[in-house]
Amino acid sequence: MFSNDAYDWLLAESSCRAHDARLVEIESQEQYNYLVNSTLLIGADVDYWIGGRDDVTEGIWKWAFSNRNFSYIAWGPGEPNSYHHEHENCLVMADKYHWLWDDRRCSESHYFICERKYPESVIESIPLVPSIVG
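The structure assignment produced for this chain is given below.
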């Protein structure tokens, strides 16, 4: 589900949870490709929050909802970099990198992508279908 509104990372996560979802956790190249293709179809040149953070231990990136280490990564050039030591602890798919990943300050406002939570037994059989979160 792609948002219509831009929020900081915590409000974005709260908005996802209010829709019985979470910020998307990208686990594979196929899922990443699907999301990039979806952003191209939407046609908005914006950044999207996704569910990664490193605020518990700097430099150790985890998915916030599942608390799992990344099994797949798609960092933009030179990322993550905590630019000018700005405590960039949250993760966006960045337009400037053609939706490769960039660490950002969690207080910034960005659009976001949610995914619905499904039991583990059905996750593999249900494709992530984007829709709009209002």
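Interim note for the steering committee: Helices lie at 9-18, 29-42, 120-123. Residues 27 and 71 are 6 Å apart (CA to CA).
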